[in-house]
Design a protein that fits this description.
With 292 residues, the chain is an alpha/beta fold. The chain contains 12 helices and 8 strands.
Length: 292
Amino acid sequence: MLFTGSGVAIVTPFKENGEIDYPGFDKLVDFHLKNKTDAIIVMGTTGEASTASDPEQIEAISYVVKRVGGKIPVIAGTGINHTDHAVELSVEAEKTGADALLIVTPYYNKATKRGLYEHYKTIANNVKIPLILYTVPGRTAVEIPVDVVKELAEIDNIVGIKDATGNLAYTAAIKHAVPKDFAVYSGNDDVVVPLMSLGGNGVISVFANALPLEMHNMVQACLDGDFKTAGEMQVKYLPLIKAMFAEVNPVPIKSAMELLGLPAGGLRLPLTRASEATVELLRKELTALNLL
């Protein structure tokens, strides 16, 4: 299996002029290696890939791969709603040495079942590294149907799914449909423990940008079968998790990181900084946990 545990959907730190802050990236990668993050997902939704040019995207992936140096898997977000373009990005990401790809469901054009299957199959057939499906209907307006996931799981290098539906009935149906070695990762920080109780293998987390060790420990408790401890942690951190999604991701998480002294940087338009109300909510929840 590619990884079990806590994978961080890492933010992309930006300078004031909007360029990528690579020294900031160094600090973030080192922070995650120190705090037991089990995988780094770069240039995903949280990494603002949608506002990065192709060269920026590949350069950032390459940079993180080199900084990590093989210590943990680096998974490249190369999904886009134009199949040929997604293939091009995926091929280039593979050349950087990325360990796997995370491919979001095509958005806006709302593909049919057959279109979804052919999209993912085409990408998988053009690379040798593993591919993780990513279903997030709240952003794409399309959920990958269970029968399509089952069919895609038969392709050798399609090895898992990031389930950001928040629908545990869907998760259970996926687990029933796919082989045991097909990984299922939570894409929602507020249901990590419930999803893992259904046999999930970990999380691809926003929360872990700020508190990687805490997320690692919660997921590890699940993997160890200690769902009592894991459940207590899920409940403990739920108010902060909710605050981190008070506005569209990654707006609040970057503010939370800023409060904690981590180099998150600003955002690229059309995203803008969190409102003062959101910053105050984050400050309140971080203080309640004695983190400030």
